[in-house]
Design brief:
The chain is α/β, with parallel strands linked by helices. The chain folds into two domains: 2-156 and 324-340, 3-Layer(aba) Sandwich (Rossmann fold), CATH 3.40.50; 160-318, Dihydrodipicolinate Reductase, domain 2 (2-Layer Sandwich), CATH 3.30.360. Helices cover 40% and strands 23% of the residues. It has twelve helices and 13 strands. The chain has a seven-stranded mixed β-sheet with strand order 4-3-2-1-5-6-7, with helices on both faces. Strands 9-11-10-8-12-13 form a six-stranded mixed β-sheet. The longest helix has 21 residues, at 12-32. The two termini are 15 Å apart. The structure holds NADP nicotinamide-adenine-dinucleotide phosphate (NAP). NADP nicotinamide-adenine-dinucleotide phosphate binds next to helix 1 and helix 12.
Length: 341
């Protein structure tokens, strides 16, 4: 089966995604019978388009660096809903910045247009789902299309897929997640080397793990966005950010971590959802985890999620690469599952 894919966003993740399509094209066709072609790739300047499929070898070379504008078929200024309409793709992949706190464009308009035009959407971009989860799902349902978002919910760490597929039929009563690799790396450095928050952040920036502007990660927002999307998927109610207390790790000090250790545990930035009677309490912030807690040993940029359900009990998933290739692979997995499950 031929699957025409359009890709919005050609940064770290977009390039890795294009590279994976090139690298795995033969394998995906052989194993799944899916002949995936990239018919459009867009960045903020414009888009390259070829209805028969862009040159995968050229794309693979671009994945190592180079300008999308050098691609044959690149049109300056072709972005947004105009690019969606032109693509006539089967799947729209959104890999533009998340900006969930400030704005949710261009992702929101692109995804709505793509779903309305009969395409499935796979998004790594959290903003649209954080702000308009119910609206997006409603558009998809009305159009008979699907939305997948592993890349927006901890990417290479499976979260929603585990809960929806592996815990199907169970009632999930609590979720705890270490969902942000950057914050977890900083806390790990602070704990192991007795560093202050500022020193831990500087080390994460020196290693290229933390962004020069790290507030989304260290103030807890990235964790909160992921938790919100997961909760909106799994619980029968639509929550918004205002339903959640959000605190980051900026006020955690080396002394707090030492004290936690002396008390038989550790401090982690945890996004949690707990079902209490009919209400669900959502929270993001530093949390004391006793050493025997399954997430207490999750260190560095590693992420993890712990579910408790009524019929299958506690279940923990830990790992997955916290990098653009892992995120791109999660989007690829979503596309495969659109056609195989
Ligand atoms: N990096 C990761 O490991 C990771 C992991 C999981 C999820 N994510 C999510 O994946 C998304 C992409 O992350 P990234 O690291 O690849 O970001 P990035 O390197 O900043 O790339 C963003 C891309 O979006 C393009 N863009 C910006 N505005 C646009 C517009 N109006 N129309 C079309 N394209 C536009 C940029 O264009 P230019 O190239 O012209 O600037 C760039 O190509 C984000 O939502 C992020 O939260 C990332």
């Amino acid at each position: 089966m031929q699957i025409n894919i359009a890709l919005s966003g050609f940064g770290h993740v977009g390039r890795a995604f294009a590279g994976l399509l090139a690298e795995k094209h033969t394998d995906l066709t052989r194993r799944y019978g899916l002949d995936m072609r990239l018919v459009l790739a867009a960045n903020s300047r414009g888009a390259a388009h070829d209805g028969g499929g862009l040159d995968l070898k050229f794309l693979e070379s671009l994945a190592q660096g180079g300008e999308l504008a050098d691609m044959p078929g690149f049109t300056e200024g072709l972005t947004g809903p105009e690019a969606v309409a032109l693509s006539r793709a089967s799947v729209w992949v959104e890999a533009t910045p998340s900006h969930a706190k400030a704005s949710f464009e261009p992702g929101m308009s692109n995804i709505k247009k793509a779903l309305g035009d009969g395409m499935h959407a796979v998004t790594l971009c959290k903003g649209p789902l954080v702000h308009n989860f119910a609206e997006i799902m409603g558009i998809a349902q009305a159009a008979g299309t699907k939305v997948k978002y592993s890349g927006a919910t901890a990417a290479a760490l499976p979260t929603v897929d585990v809960a929806v597929n592996s815990l199907a039929g169970s009632r999930i009563t609590s979720i705890e997640g270490i969902l942000n690799g950057t914050s977890n790396f900083i806390l790990t450095c602070m704990e192991r080397e007795g560093l202050s928050f500022a020193q831990g952040l500087a080390e994460a920036q020196r290693r290229g793990i933390a962004e020069p502007e790290p507030s989304l990660d260290v103030e807890g927002w990235d964790t909160a966005y992921k938790l919100l999307i997961i909760a909106n998927t799994l619980f029968e109610k639509t929550f918004s950010l205002s339903d959640m207390a959000v605190e980051g790790i900026t006020r955690v000090g080396a002394a707090d971590l030492k004290e936690a250790g002396n008390s038989g545990g550790t401090l982690k930035l945890v996004g949690s959802a707990e079902l209490r009677k009919e209400a669900c309490v959502l929270k993001t912030g530093p949390k004391f985890l006793p050493f025997e807690h399954p997430l207490a040993g999750v260190s560095g940029t590693t992420k993890g999620i712990h579910f408790v359900s009524d019929t299958m009990g506690p279940l923990t998933v830990i790992g997955g690469y916290s990098n653009p290739r892992g995120a791109a692979a999660a989007a690829l997995k979503d596309i495969i599952s659109l056609y195989m499950l």
